[in-house]
Fold each of these.
Amino acid sequence: MSIPTSSVEQVIPEQGAMAQPSVRPSRRRRLRFVSGGKAATGLAVVAGYVLLAVIGPWIAPYDPDARSADLLQPPSAAHWFGTTHLGQDVFSQILVGTRGVMLVGLTAGVVATALSVLVGVTAGYLGGLADDGLSALSNVFLVIPALPLIIIVTSTVAGAGDLVVALVIGLTSWAWGARVLRAQTLSLRRRDYVEAARATGERTWRIIGFEILPNLTAIIASGFVGTVIFAVMSEITLAFIGISSVSSWNWGTILFWAQSQQALAQGAWWWFVPAGLAIALLGTALALINFGIDEFVSPRLRSAGRSRARTADGRTVRMRVGFTPVLAPRPASPAGSGQREEAGR
Amino acid sequence: MTFLLRRLAFYVFTAWAALTINFFIPRMIPGDPVKSLISRFQGQLSTDALHSLYVLFGLDSDDSLWDQYVDYWRQLAHGDLGLSFTAFPSPVSEVIGDALPWTLALVGVTTAVSFLLGTGLGVLAGWRRGSWVDGLLPVTTFLSSVPYFWLGLVAIAVLAGPGSFFPSSGGYEPGLVPALDTIFLGSAVQHSLLPAATILISSMSGWILSMRNMMVTVAAEDYITVAHAKGLPERRVAVSYAARNALLPNVAGFALSLGLIVGGTLLVEIVFSYPGLGFLLFRAVSAKDYPLMQGIFLVITLSVLVANLLADVAYLFLDPRTRKEG
């Protein structure tokens, strides 16, 4: 479980890109988002996972349930990630499990995002009593610890399958997105172009759909990615504790068996390390996409690269936000040298 | 003061909502898992215990829903959460009371340390953009993407073998009697080092990142430029001008993510068999001990609400604007 790292909310007060009433980002701007290294890397890795989710069960070298005589073998050419206590192939289990993980993550993400847009934008746009009620609702869901709630609900539903798990996660994790969207909608609805649309007699649903929503794209996307991270983690956690059905494979199920069969005590590191790395890689990729979105929205957050520059006459200057270093030629008298840097320090 | 009162009202409302959710969950589920449990313990349950379980799980279905609801509240007011089936015949409240201090100590200390450390590093990273601290960001992102429990598993595999200083499970040396003496406390601390380190590593990066981004945003404000122009020392500008203002959203975020942190901590406890609420919840889930599960959910929710209230009080001290409104 990671803390929501997306900081879209924090950059809201002054976003350059969001403030423009451009209804649809031009092709070049969209490309610029992808061309940022972080977002591109993240998108590529996630695309790889989606591909595996589709073709995984077909390219898996073994049936993940099939037992064999190779009990608890370390990784080898025949079994890339080794075998379990029943001789099952861990590599195949991971390949087959990818589909369940991605399916639940994306479904929960879609459900939660739809709910957060519905609640957040409605609350922000309508204001008044509706806003108070919906904000209170999302704050309640924000404060109640989600994971215990998800555990309780799923464990009361006997034999919860992937769909139930995805729905439960989606229905409990929309509050954060709703809160961020509400704040942004509040600031958008007083903008001139929205007022103009209202003055010309546009219907409310049209203003929301065509004037407001397009300008929330970045926040919605970042919320979606964040929810997918959370959903994947929660799903794996549920499987790891043994609440959701252990008959269908996902990475949590692998960890569940590894834990319950004392893989640690037997030194069978290959049993739980690949699944964990798969989760971590997916999580990192999704987080990278979110960083990309954040930096696209607020370019100042970009890592500045080298912040020290050496000038021709051997002085070092540190670049910093809010200051523009001016490289004046060194004054003739030694007393005045380096004063400009001093001021900047 | 109005600020605090308004927050208090909100938390009371949330507590009510959580308790009501707790009331409805078992009533919406088709089939009665509790009924089968009760029939398994038939004859061992006293009529009182039977009645309290009936009230909690809505088995007295000939009453109207409203009457059930009133009964449910009356019972909670007495602190009666039913009987635990795994720790039969102890009441749920007693079982939870044993586990609660462990979780409180573990979560409290690690969360405070991780918040302070993470915020401190975030201040550095944001102020000196492009320095080595920025290079840490990808690493910490990766670490925070690892599930808490998996990191715990790796920590056990690598650090806690036979003969290692770090014990791999439990909250204290088996055989010791829990008491407030040096031997027991020392053993408890030794057992909590690995779980604490695990939580610390995975939860810290979130603070670093959000504080860094906030610092970057604040560093471009006019009052920072003015502070520089006045010739104040760099450290003073960074700490009392930039960090002070960047801290506010981070404290607000702290309150909001408490629920998530607690969820993660529960998992670490499961991996380390740490005798806190998380491990208890795990055992309750595997034994289908519904009264215990619901009781734990209630206690966790209420604790998180109290922690939120404390964070609000801290916010009150940090942000003069909230005080002025009152």
Amino acid sequence: MPIEVVLLFAWMLVIAFLAFIACTFEDLESDIGSQSNPNSQVQLAAQVGQINRFFNKAISGEPLSNAMYCVTAGTIAWLLLRQFEPLVPGEEWKAAVLAIPIGVLAATMINMIFSTTSHCGRTAAQKRFEQPIYLDVLYGHLIPIGAHAFMTTFCITCIAYIQSNIGTLSGNPALDHPFALPLLGFIWGITVGAIGSSTGDVHYGAEREFQDRPFGEGKRVVYHGKITRYAECGVRTQKDIAGFCLKFGAPCTGMTFGLIILFENWRSMVGMQLGGFLPALPAFTATGDMAAIFGIVLGLLIVAALMVGNIVFVKWVRKKYGPFVGV
Amino acid sequence: MEPVMMILIVGCVVIGGLLASLGAHLLPVGGAPAAMGTATGIATGTVQIMLGAVMTGLFTAASVATFTDSLLLVSLSGAVGATVMMCVVMFMANIVYAFGCGIVPISGRVDVDPITKEPQAPYRTPQTDGHGVPNVVYVSGAIGGFLAGFAGALMYYALLNYAHFSAGLAAIVALSIFVANAILAAYNIRGTIEGFHDPKFKRLPKALISSFAVSLLCGIVVVLAATILGGAL
Amino acid sequence: MTVTPAVIEEEEPTKKGLSFKFPPEETEMGLIAGIIGAVIVIFTGLPAVIKGVGLLLVLLWGMDSVRKTSKYGLGTGVPSIGVLATGYGVVGALMGLAVAEYGRVGQLYPAVLVGVIVMGAIGLVSGIFANGEKFIAMKIPRLERAMMELGMAGTLAILLECSILTGSLSFAAVVDNVMTTGLIALLFIFNCFAMLHPYNACLGPDERRERTRMCAVEISGLICVLLGLAMIGLGTSPYGILDGVSLVVFGAIVWVVFFRMFIKACMDECYATVGTGLIKTIE
């Protein structure tokens, strides 16, 4: 197999690995700030009289907020790359090593600014429910939120950088993705947020926020707002939650995004390989069409496998757990 | 620009808008209650999960569009990409529900699963509207993802190859039109929906009419812009 | 599920130094922002700082429209309407840029306003469909007008940002500098946030319009900083690097002033601001 093709597959695996890390940290970041859907309970808690020491980070939904951080990081990195790359001809990676962390740092600052405004704004709007602003909660959570967001944004920006240069990196510049770095950051920011909010939030919202309620049932409407306010020792803040969700929810979320990136890139590249498109790249010919067809067929096979897997899994869970027996 | 092209662009945008609206109604969206295991479906909003799915599809569609110029292949690539995303998300959500919270995936709107004929009511927690992603919802979500991804990639292809936009512009304009339709559909759904077996699915025609009008107008705007510029891109 | 606040016209006396009463009423705000924004869009030769002021006003207008729509509860959360506004804005900006060459006088582009008007019409149509009894029937008072305003504000904002980044509104320049480079993603997402974040962040029964508007101005300041950096990077301004630097400085000053003002307002107006403390126990 030619070295270009091997490099292409190697970079694809690097991207999938980065995706795993990115989404794991994304879920933890949203849990620390109680962003997205479980935030409705933190918001509701004060209204039903449950004054709490949770951080109320309501920066819209996760997809949009993550898209914002990744686009900021991507834009700043792209601007710096434009300045630095001509300085190191032939060794463009040196520019990337400097540009990407600076861009991500700027995005982290923006994340912390938005976190502060949303926590203060939402708490101030709950004046009549007697929910105070605890300054130690405000300051104490900003650094963990920023640190986790740094990891997420860093990985996503790296993915975007690799994908916008994947052809150059593996020796076939025609394979570079047609979208520019900021736009790729936007795409993967939206996706990582959508996955983080749809998979990872369940562990935080359905289990950790209601840990003193019976295990193994959907949380009833009467529980809503009555969140677990006390920790194993003392009053619960969201720093306790990161440790809990890291044990199950966050890795599952990371795996979801990692699998999606892996499947998506893998089926495209195996399709190219099977269609005879690599490494000569005869675009807009029958070979190109064949590569696309193989990619689609492989995708459909993956979908079918997942569908069968879900049917088997649901059947197994129903058998093992049995009907509802509580009151 | 010849009239055939113009009609083609408007047609693609309108079809894309209608499919986006239909896809939004098929996606099982539980919203915030789903994150607490109080409603069936994916634990996020309609617009959010749709954007995620379509963006994944659009990424693949854009790379496929660099080496093939067949409308069907590009659109199908986008559709399959979005379906893969939806399927993995729903499967992993089930795993988190089952092992993280001990919850069985159950539909809240029907007493018997229309596809596998499994009884649902005895497994449901009282005072909830179902939880998890049961099989019928899973199938509905996969179809919804397919249609949404197809819509996004179709609009991207039409703007890229018929209106001759650059790749970045085509992506962002396709996304904008798509988002407008998805949000109108989300307003029609109002919170949660389980899929094609949900009673709320009967509200679909209202959203389709609105989508048709808005995408027609957007399509005309795009055609006017493309005509005036006349390949000056 | 966001908690829908009760609709209350709150008129609390505020402490001195924290009130931000420009212009006091929503319709006046719309008129002022719309007219000033439109004038600044047409004159593309202006320095970036003035365009930044226009952008600030237009985004404040958009945020006001989001606020008056969302306080009735949308069913899908506040963010969706801000994204809708920006989505319309991109399509409208495309239309405006396409016709920009017609009737052009030097650096004046009066025709771009066609895009704003077209988008206002599309917004109106979608508002009628969304609110109509026979269609989606959202039953939100004045939704038609709010959606029209959102379409217009979104378009003006995108056009102003394009004009800041390229120094002109010629389509070729915008495509080269904004679309192909992917900067359009930056414009898209930050327009969304400037419109949706203030109300989303201040949501609650004790929300106060003036406080929410401080947050909007603060985010506009951030946008100005980022746009200024992008301008310096692109090097497209007719006034050289000084134009971008001045925009960055302007944005930073606006951000610092309004961020401090907003946080101070929040801490003064909330139930209590305490260093630390235990929570109230429930029997």
